[in-house]
Amino acid sequence: MNKGYDGFYDSEELSFGSDPTQEIREFVEREGATGRALDLGAGDGRNTLFLAEKGFEVTALDISKTGIDKLDRIAGEKGVNNKIETIIEDARDWVYPEGKFDLIVAVTLFDHLETPEIDKLFYKVRNSLKRGGIMFVKVHTIDDPGYRDDPEKSSELSTEVKHYFRPNELLKHFKGNFNIRYYEECMEDDTSHGTPHKHGYARILARKMK
After folding, report:
1. Which ranges constitute the DSSP H helices of 8-144?
2. What total of structural domains would you count in the chain?
3. Cβ distance 24 to 108 under 8 Å?
């Protein structure tokens, strides 16, 4: 993981648009969820801001100072900065508190790690989730045009992805002590940045049982 997004976040507006990730919005609004949330790889904060506005106490962690600085500014403008703790740090290096969070969100974080680092970080993140807590993870898959290095169809950010997940690979990190609420592998249109393009994604919503 690196600071390759600093230039991307160097704008006034939220770089991936102001709408939160659809599955996060649907879960929170359907179940009225609240509590303590951890947004890993928060970037400039579209999911963090949504969760704070819904009443969560949110810890937002990202390696990009540019992204976190923008998140701090926008949170102040929206009046939710008192609900958000921001941390500028590499997700691999942060000391994760044990059993603290009711919700952990990691949208395109684990795919930005080198393959040997993924298992180690998953262990630390899972350990930081409360029993009964919810974890949502979204990653790029080998169906993504970036995996094929197709410059005409790939996102301009595809070079930042270090590991494209294979079919059902994401599921293995949740077997044993999670109840899988939702799992999908799909192609998705992305018009939030750059030239419109498609992504191959795997996404999972799971509840920690023990």
Report:
1. 22-31, 46-53, 65-78, 115-127
2. 1
3. no
Amino acid making up residue 93: D
User: Could you identify the residue written with the tokens 């969100």?
Assistant: 105
Could you read off the pLDDT of 165-203 as tens digits, one per residue?
999 999 999 988 899 999 999 988 765 655 766 888 999
Burial of 183 (0-12, 13-18, 19+ CB in 10 A): middle
Give this prediction's pTM.
0.89
Q: Pairing mode, if any, of strands 178-190 and 101-107?
A: unpaired
Predicted local confidence at residue 174, as pLDDT: 95
Name the residue range of residue 153's domain. 22-38+52-57+92-208
Strands of 36-40's sheet in order across: 84-88, 57-62, 36-40, 101-107, 129-140, 197-208, 178-190
Query: What angle do the packed helices 22-31 and 46-53 form, to 10 degrees?
Result: 10
Beta bridge partners of residue 179, listed in sequence order: 207
